[in-house]
Amino acid sequence: MNLDFTPEEQAFREEARTWLAEHLPTEERPPDGQPMREFDLAWQKTLFEGGWAGINWPKEYGGRGLNDIQQMIWYEEFARADPPFTLNNSCTFVGNNHGGPTLIVSGTDEQKSFHLPKILQGDVVWCQGFSEPGAGSDLGSLSCKAVIDGDELVVNGQKIWTSYAHVADFQELLVRTDPSAPKHKGISWVICDMTTPGIEIREITTMSHVNDFCEVFYDDVRIPLSNVVGQVNDGWRVTMTTLSFERGTAFMADQVELAAVVERLIEEAKVRTGPDGKRPAIADDEIARRLSLARAEVAALKAMTIAGISRTQRTGVPGPEGSMTRLFHGELHQRVYQLGLDIIGPEALRLTPVDGNGWTGPYLQSFAYTIGGGTTDIQRNIVGERVLGLPRVK
Amino acid sequence: MDLLPTPEQEEIVTSIASVIAGNHTTGEPLTDALWEAAAAQGWFGLGLEEALGGVGYSLAEEVLLFTELGRAAVPGPFLATVLASRLAAEAGEADLTQQLISGSDRVGLAERWDDDRFSVLDADGATMALIVDGERVTLVDLGGVALDSIPSFDTLVPVSLAIDLHESPALATAPDGPALLRRGALLSAALLAGIAKATTDQSVCYGIDREQFGQPVGGFQAVKHRCADMATRAEVAACQVLYAALAERDGRPDAEFHVHAARVVAARAAVENSQINVQNHGGIGFTWEHTAHRYVTRSRVYASVLGTTHTHLGATLAATAPQ
User: Fold this and answer.
1) C-alpha to C-alpha distance for B206 and B279, rounded to whole angstroms
2) What is the CATH number of the domain that holds B283?
3) CB pairs below 8 Å between A and B: how many?
4) How many CA atoms are closer than 13 Å to the CA of A370, on its beta-carbon side?
5) Using CA atoms in the order B284, B287, B292, B298, what is the torsion angle rounded to 10 degrees?
6) Does A260 contact chain B (CB < 8 Å)?
7) A197 inside domain
8) B-interface mutation test, from A9, A256, A292, most B Cβ less than 10 A away
9) Is ipTM strictly over 0.90?
10) What are the beta bridge partners of residue A129?
11) Which residues of A touch B58 (CB under 8 A)?
12) Which pLDDT belongs to residue A248?
């Protein structure tokens, strides 16, 4: 047990801080469409050229092959640099944290050599094709169908809640390839080229005024069988690998950034007029108490994140305990922005962008934190069943 | 950076747990056998430097000890006695330090009750009291002090009231009161983190064993999700307590903040988990026979010593920002 950084980790921090000071974009991220895609890819390209893409990806796949502690240091330095956008709110998220890591674990050599460099270099956008109108929390019941025809899969069906589908080049797509098998046995994980004929994308506007939440329709979409990752009908296992990354380090950036948000909120509370209309907000007992608790809880979240890294370093794979971190983080994130709205007074009437240092846009976006990537109800099931060993839901 | 116990620390925890299990039953009073075993194991000087007569481990191992004591709901004056041996050592009282490490004396914990009186926890059988008065911490002889015992909320933690206790001659005074109090607050947080874990385990066991409607009740999401929340609170508390222990041990500039934060999240976890644990057990959880109520009252006792959740929250905001 120690809190010390190694000399290499310390040097890595210095290097990151210096580089970020010189390369961090100062302009705001465009909120939608092609300008947003170009902004996100340009930043990914800048990261790649600076040697900061795929920090914890293995070196053989173009990453830096560094450990999760260094990944965390990078996120800390990014947050400290006071960026005009958040790291995970990017159309490069799925490629970096989902698609890429899944290919590294389960892809063929051809799949890896074709896709991984493009993801790291910022040439392509990946999106996720998991949820369907009838398969949300019960992902295993998905029904988007794929039939083998020669050396191709023919896909028919629908996906939903596909962030950035409208600007994506590739999709990690889950399809049912064996309708007669038990529900978790007949699924395949395939790479879908989003320019394939027969794909129709409709944008869905979210409560936070963002249009990147899409539904995707497939009408006889032909995908080469060579795009299947893992084996046909083995997609559930491949998916679980992907989701373990999500429980592991994919949300570490958000967790680290939240600590900076709380410090910023404390500063806001010193300058905003409080509920009595006279004193600063921080002089109000209730607000001060909620701020204190938020500060204590984000510290504990960091300790939990470090404990998770320590555990992964010993076992090699992120365990189900990560669901406790996800659960705690999602709800804490929401409480922080709820508190934000209570502190800023009449400014709460002004809509601010989802990105950036405003409070109302991020507040509206915070509702996603207990829904996306498995709702908090699903996280509680995972904690109950896989961490605590309680009986499974019948 | 690593926040999990090392193999050596895991062995220490296993050994502590087996000493407790061999000499104590949750819900029962402290046995002389456990107190003597604790002394023999060096628990009263566990985190004290060898040069000062201690075992030579650090605050991290002391936190692991107190987490186990909390988990098994071990009553008795462990907290004040461990703090007293450190106080004596830091005050240069070598003989007194050895006396305390040997377990020959038990030390009650005295704090302000009102303007005139002090409350003393665990005064029964104690020969000394650790008096906390603001930032001043002193060790006094209890001989000849008039103690007026009151019915105690936790029947295994006796409470007495004493007038003019601070006028008793001091055996030793802490050279650095605030540092000793930070240590005490963190050890109380460890006791609370242990309670948060124990109550989670009790609820999970019951959720697996108890059947209703033809299935274990832990299969119902209403129960399962409460257990998941308990486990999460316990994990949050345990991680922050360990982080704070290392920050304080290493003298980091944000150590004070982390200790207050640890006490806040641990107290909330223990109080909430112990309450929900009763609910999860239904009728049997409401009985005297079951040990669930022990954690309910014990968590309130620990959350009220060496500051309250309210004062630690305030200090969390006032402290130097976490690094």
Assistant:
1) 11
2) 1.20.140.10
3) 161
4) 15
5) 170
6) no
7) yes
8) A292
9) yes
10) A173
11) none
12) 62
pLDDT tens across B109-130, in order?
999 999 999 999 999 999 999 9
Q: Among B221, B231, B264, select the one facing A393 at the smallest CB separation.
A: B221
**Residues of the domain holding B243:** 177-318
Taking a C-beta distance cutoff of 8 angstroms, is the pair A351, A344 a contact? no
Give yes or no for a contact between B244 and B258, defined as CB atoms under 8 angstroms apart.
Answer: yes
A295 at B interface, C-beta within 8 A: yes
Which residues numbered 301-320 in A keep a CB inside 8 Å of some CB on B? Answer: 301-304, 306-307, 309-311, 313-314
pLDDT tens for each residue of A34-43: 999 999 999 9
Chosen domain end from A41, A66, A90: A90
The answer to whether B276 touches B94, Cβ cutoff 8 Å, is no
Query: Domain tally for chain B?
Result: 2
- Other beta carbons less than 10 A from residue B147's beta carbon: 19
| Beta carbons of A3 and B242 less than 8 Å apart | no
Of the residues B158, B175, B192, which one is the last residue of a structural domain? B175
In a domain, residue B239? The reply is: yes
- Gap between the Cα atoms of B68 and B17, Å rounded: 6
Chain B CB contacts of A381 under 8 Å are 221, 224-225, 228
Q: Note whether B200 and B166 are same-domain residues.
A: no
Chain B residue numbers with beta carbons less than 8 Å from the beta carbon of A314 are: 4
Helices (H) and strands (E) in chain A — how many of each? Answer: 12, 8
Residues in chain A with CB shorter than 8 Å from the CB of B208 are 389-391
